Amino acid sequence: MTRSLSFFPILLLALLSAVVASLQIGSDLSLSRQLAIVTGTQAEEFADIMFSYAQLPRLVMALMVGAMLGLVGSLMQQLTQNALTSPLTLGTSSGAWLALIIVNVWFPELVGDHSALAAMAGAMLSLFLVIFIAGPKNMTGLPLVLSGMVVNILLGSVASAIILLNAEYAKNVFIWGAGDLTQNGWESVQWLLPRLSVSLLLLVFAPRILTLMRLGHQGAAARGLNVVPAFIVLMAVGLWLVAASITVVGVISFIGLLTPNIARALGARTPRFELTMSALLGALLLVVTDAAAQLLSQLTVDAIPSGTTAAAIGAPALLWFSRRKMKAQDQVSIKLPPSRDRLSALSLPALMLIVAGILCLTAVFVTDGHSWHVALPTAYQWELRWPRMLTALSAGVGLAIAGTVLQRLIYNPLASPDILGISAGATFALVGASVFLGMNIFAVGSVLAFAGSMLVLVVLLVLGRRHQFAPSSLILIGIALTALIDALVQFALAKGTQDSYSILTWLAGSTYRVTEGKAVFLFVGVAALFVFTLSTSRWLTLISAGRQFAAARGLNVPVSSALLLGTVALLCALVTATMGPVAFVGLLAPHMAVMLGAKQAKEQLLVASLVGAVVMLIADWVGQTVLFPAQIAAGTLVSVIGGSYFLFLLIRGRSR
């Protein structure tokens, strides 16, 4: 306690210095003139007005929101006894974001008065979903964070689909996703301030409850605390504060994750001191982050939202946290559903017939929006359909192979190109080239995507080796990279140009804009890598039995692993560069293959590739027809299907 008290004056001095420095950015006023305006002097010149109605309210907003995010982050981490809990990792930010999009698109008359309530409802719904998936006993372990990540992907996919289907109504929500503190007066501050007043109740009543909860559920109950209602009430108050803040400034990640950990590192040991120090650190961190965003905006043509800079700072911090030693309960164990002992001789022919049948169905079974009918496509219709069919087929096969190789190489049934961030690396490279270099995202080559995937693979290998590629370490890396890329994407969308919609369409994982040349290139590339992987299936078989065993049998394990990992990166790059990121196929297809009895490496590769093709072809065809003439991207539907399957695995693992 003494150590934490000694840091309070330093924190206050640092916060005051940050406030003064922030007010000097882009202002022509002297410090004395600024002080005079703050103390009540009437604004006269244009510079005075800009200071009074733009800079000051922006600073106050940063202080308020930063303090609330830090306070709620500390509250959530103390309630769950989990240093990785935050509105970001619990999926509550995505729930609030989705609710705001729904209100803006379908209930615009409620936006003015009920946006905060809608965001609160979305955040609460996502939180209860995460707790149900992880289970009350896993609140202190990684399963809670993992469940939040999957819920984030699911809700994000639904939100993207709604925006794409209702683009004309959803333009004004883009800036929310980027997290922007820009103000044009004091109206937002006046609206938010009374809604944050409940935070005072937290500071008064929460410390005693949190102190009792540190004794454990049984110890707290023995001392008269009704644990479950107390948990729900405190979490609801915290979510209200987050929802109100998101309603005004949008999604700002990582503040609530970082500040409680910093507070504990500085010596905060009691609940009251941790809450207070986290609030101060949150205000300081967001003011500094916003100042950095303003400075970068002056150096560049585009205004950079504060949420983007917060993610750029927070993602490396989360990577650093991932290197820390995990607790025993953080080593996630997943068991697949019951499977056959061996692969039936009819399985491969049956899957091939299913793929052929879906291809025929896609070609001739169409709808005009009112009825379904069978019709041979005209030459023009065939030119439109076959590139999409070939792309979906190739993408499903490629991602299935990548997932199978990854799971066998690092002995991790949760390994998947999207969950581990490998696909995100390709996405980061392509979106970054579009945003910062002005390239057309549909024209950027696969080489750039391959470089992004390889960079992520290197990070995974370097950071994951310390924990023997445990699920906990690798998944946290994937979460950090995904959050960073989401911030970059939201920055691109917040610019409000036509490129924003192009990027969003591409991110949904659609075959809509794939040309004939790209479809053929993807097919040839995936086919070549498929043949290479099958020819090296013996490597996978030996490595799956153990690296020492493989080396004893004469296999050069480092070279073989490097070649196979490079194959994974190249497959992800080809698919991502052609149709955008597609989630969960690399997780779903290998699991389905094992459940069908494909236990050997070559069998699993063959069966998984066919399963991946079936999933992608069905998703692409359903997306084209179910809401005709509107279309849902195949990647969105696959995210919903694969995410639901992943949640099933988590729930099943908890029940066991």
UniProtKB/TrEMBL annotation:
Superkingdom classification of source: Bacteria
Keywords in alphabetical order: Cell membrane, Membrane, Transmembrane, Transmembrane helix, Transport
InterPro entries assigned: ABC_BtuC-like, ABC_transptr_permease_BtuC
Record's bilayer topology term: Multi-pass membrane protein
Location(s), subcellular: Cell membrane
Gene3D superfamilies the UniProt entry points to: ABC transporter involved in vitamin B12 uptake, BtuC (1.10.3470.10)
Main location group: membrane
UniProt family annotation: Belongs to the binding-protein-dependent transport system permease family. FecCD subfamily.
Name assigned to this protein: Fe(3+)-hydroxamate ABC transporter permease FhuB
Originating organism: Photobacterium arenosum
Lineage, highest ranks first: Bacteria, Pseudomonadati, Pseudomonadota, Gammaproteobacteria, Vibrionales
